[in-house]
TrEMBL record:
Its cofactor is a divalent metal cation; Mn(2+); Mg(2+). It is an enzyme of class 3 (hydrolase). GO terms for molecular function: bis(5'-adenosyl)-pentaphosphatase activity; guanosine-3',5'-bis(diphosphate) 3'-diphosphatase activity. Residues 4-154 form the Nudix hydrolase domain. GO terms for biological process: nucleoside phosphate metabolic process; ribose phosphate metabolic process. Accelerates the degradation of transcripts by removing pyrophosphate from the 5'-end of triphosphorylated RNA, leading to a more labile monophosphorylated state that can stimulate subsequent ribonuclease cleavage. It comes from Falsiroseomonas bella. Keywords: Hydrolase. It comes from the Bacteria. Its EC number is 3.6.1.-. This is RNA pyrophosphohydrolase. InterPro entries: Nudix_hydrolase, NUDIX_hydrolase-like_dom_sf, NUDIX_hydrolase_CS, NUDIX_hydrolase_dom, RppH.
Amino acid sequence: MTKPYRDNVGALLFNAAGLVLVARRADLPNAEGAAGGWQLPQGGVDAGEDLRVAVLRELKEEVGTDKAEILEEFPGWLTYDFPPELAARGFRIARRYRGQRQKWFALRFTGTDADIRLDADEHPEFDAWRWARLEELPDLAVAFKRDIYVELVRSFAHLAAPRVSR
């Protein structure tokens, strides 16, 4: 029997300069330039939870802020499979699920950098964060998420322009 996909939401959090927040996973090799250590905030959806509520909740849990407004929703779901070695390394979710089925949102950050707090959760998922150019995302991603990041770059490129103050 094939394991199911886990429903998940992901966030492309754009700042006023058109850059996207990426965070470095605390449980992966943390060489500054190493591919795969950096990712976009994402997380599971609770049963019956509205997806727009879920993406803001995940931002708050993972990066300590929900100071954001949703700009756009990716029209479909994107999926990826977990590589078998994740389950072998003790990654619990990979034992229960084949991979993740993701609904992605583009959001505009309405706070300040001081609002981003990786220590907001009792068990932080990330140990560092930074603003990155949208087109950098595929090169920062682990191999099994790369195709999704390529699609997100293509779909949300129009949002990466700096906002003009009026």
